[in-house]
Amino acid sequence: MPSSVPSSTDGWWCSPNTEYAFLGFSYEVTACQSLSQLNSDFADIKNTFGSRYVRLYGACDRNGFYDDIVSAAWATGLGVHALIWFGFDGGNQWMARRDALVSSLTSNPKAKFVTRGVQFGSEPLFDNVLPHSQLASEVTSLKSKLLGVGIPVTVSELAYGYQERGGAQDVLDAIDFINIHMLPFFSALATFGAASWPLVETDMNWFIEHGSGKKMYFDENGWPSVTSSGVQPNSILAQSSVSNEEGYFSMLDSHCEDLKLGPQGGIGWFAHIYSDEQEPGYGIYDDAGKKKFPLKPRTSC
Q1: What is the pLDDT of residue 71?
Q2: pLDDT tens, 179-232?
Q3: Contact 111, 149 (CB under 8 A)
Q4: What H or E segment, with its residue span, contains residue 174?
Q5: Could you count the other beta carbons within 10 Å of the beta carbon of residue 229?
Q6: Average model confidence (pLDDT) for the chain?
Q7: With 0-12 CB in 10 A as exposed, 13-18 as middle and 19+ as buried, what is 135?
Q8: Total-model pTM
Q9: What angle in degrees, to the nearest 10, is found between the helix axes of 93-107 and 132-145?
Q10: Which residues are 154's β-sheet partners?
Q11: Average pLDDT in the 71-80 region?
């Protein structure tokens, strides 16, 4: 990063046409990691894996936490997909999170240089936190608040979250780009991670058909190595294991050329999630901080 903050983001970001293949990791922040921990993890994400971005997941409500995210991202040269987290308990806490994030994005001089976009919720449609018409209005309102800093807005969601609401085309029309939850382990047709390309392709093609040519990313994207109370298959043939998790990401990497054919230069993907400490079974690192398998996906093809 430059030694001083530039005066403008004009020409700052690479073209979305270059953002395909592997981009980085989902990173869960409920632990409210210290700045030193963020610096360490972000440096590993950048230097070990060649990542360009982290996609935030969960929420930390500590005052100034997103400013720490900005500091760590600036120090390591990573971009961030920020998140307004609704959670699973209902209520209106998301409003305070929205306002705190907007405050940081519009007052921290470095924020617009590391924040690639804001996710308005993670599966807010599937979790039924707002009617889709209201969510679309919230997205439009947030876009206007961030217009001055040039930060686009999306919603992070499953294809099914849209589909079970008649397509929720108003949300797809409102967002600037499309963050897609790609979790084929939960399909009723799931078997092995390495064999899941047809499931990926089905959801991908639905978004291409309804996404009006917008840029797309698989952001909450992975296959679990173990099941848990909240992670259970819908197919008796679905296999959860380290080899299936590895097989899923190897499969995605093998389809780099196919993903590159997607809108605006191709579809980029994140690995969900950085560590099993953040979400059991989905991590690239286990609870002891060791890689569960080698991950060296292509960042271009």
Answers
A1: 98
A2: 999 999 999 999 999 999 999 999 999 999 999 999 999 999 999 999 988 899
A3: yes
A4: helix 169-174
A5: 6
A6: 97
A7: buried
A8: 0.96
A9: 20
A10: 119
A11: 98
Distance CA(147)–CA(140), nearest Å, equals 11
The tokens for 111 are 């924020």
**pLDDT for the residue 150:** 97
Burial of 91: CB neighbours in 10 Å, binned 0-12, 13-18, 19+: exposed
Q: Which of 132, 295, 123 is nearest to 223 (CA)?
A: 295
Question: Would you say how long the chain is, in residues?
Answer: 301
Q: What does the pLDDT read at residue 229? A: 85
Check if the beta carbon of residue 28 is closer than 8 Å to that of residue 278: yes
Distance CA 246, CA 250 (A): 6
- Residues 6 or more apart whose CB falls under 8 angstroms from that of 234 comprise 186, 187, 188, 190
Alpha helices in the chain, H assignment, sequence order = 35-49, 65-76, 93-107, 111-114, 132-145, 159-163, 169-174, 197-210, 242-254, 256-259
Distance of CA 37 to the CA centre of its chain: 20
pLDDT at 233: 94
Hey, what amino acid is at 10? D
Strand partners for 271: 25
| Exposed/middle/buried for residue 2 (C-beta within 10 Å: 0-12, 13-18, 19+) | exposed
Partnered with residue 119 across adjacent β-strands are: 83, 154
